[in-house]
Amino acid sequence: MLPPSIQIRDAKDSDAQGLITLIGGCFAEYPGCLMDAEGELPELFSIATSFSNWKGHFWVAVEHGEVVGCIGYTPGKKPGYAELKKLYVDKRVREHGLGGILCTLVENEATKQGYTHIDLWSDTRFQTAHRFYQKRGYIKGPTTRLLHDISNTEEYYFEKPL
Question: What 3-state class would DSSP assign to 34?
Answer without folding.
Answer: coil
